Amino acid sequence: MTASKPPVIQIRRLTKSYGQGDATVHALRGPSGPGGEPLGVGLDIEEGDYVAVMGSSGSGKSTLMNILGCLDVPTSGRYLLDGTDVGHLDEQQLSLVRNRKIGFVFQSFNLVPRTTALAQVELPLAYAGVRSAERRRRALAALDLVGLADRAGHKPNELSGGQQQRVAVARALVTAPAMLLADEPTGNLDSHSTEEVLGIIDGLNAAGRTVVVITHEDEVARHAKRVIRLVDGAIVSDIRQAKVAGPPPALAVGVGA
Ligand SMILES: Nc1ncnc2c1ncn2[C@@H]1O[C@H](COP(=O)(O)OP(=O)(O)OP(=O)(O)O)[C@@H](O)[C@H]1O
Ligand SMILES: [Mg+2]
């Protein structure tokens, strides 16, 4: 990481609204201008940062994550990911960016039913056109990294919630994406599994991955280096915090290509 490198995420005057007329919801609006008009959200995230996005229900967290992850487009404003203005990309180019640059982890795991852990983790590599022997090698390495090498043949209904989420983390990291985006990754987990999954995410960040995690929980935000708070679609605080929990050294490695 060099000081001269531009931030991996650059957001300028970004807004997102749903609906029209009186029914318009300004999910992301930023501060208000003199006439009450939304000025939009501005945000830079440096490569290798570990950001927690907090805020009450409906404050715009998932809307922000969907835009950061190129799953949705802003109503106005600009979003540069790794220097590319994603507003200029078509649907096919966006899906390429998602596949190459971003790993997603969702609260509900989003695993494919009746499919083995190994096949789940191989899936993004298949989309990326990686040949089968290499796919298998990298998927097994990713499962090993999350401590599930011995569960490679298990289907989701044969795994605990924590194990399912670790499969989802393996799937998110197997393509060695620049950025990991997680929306309430521990929302459905007990405290033990939460610590396990957060330990893995900490390790990925220690290995250089940029991490953005959306959470309601202080326990989760405590792991991040920076905490951003949203209220009604605007960033109201952005605080850098001393890192409390360090990852176990064994996890501080990447699953390289
Ligand atoms: N597809 C949609 N159509 C209309 N309104 C939407 C849509 N998605 C989100 N909203 C509205 O935008 C606002 C922000 O929603 P968002 O999902 O980003 O909140 P959140 O902070 O993730 O909340 P939670 O903590 O409950 O997940 C809410 O008022 C929500 O009702
Ligand atoms: Mg949400």
UniProtKB/TrEMBL annotation:
Single GO term (MF): ATP binding
Listed SMART domains: AAA
Keyword ATP-binding: yes
Alphabetical UniProt keywords: ATP-binding, Nucleotide-binding, Transport
Ranges of residues in domain ABC transporter: 9-257
Keyword Transcription: no
UniProt cross-references to InterPro entries, sorted A to Z: AAA+_ATPase, ABC_transporter-like_ATP-bd, ABC_transporter-like_CS, ABC_transpr_LolD-like, MacB-like_ATP-bd, P-loop_NTPase
Protein name (database record): ABC transporter ATP-binding protein
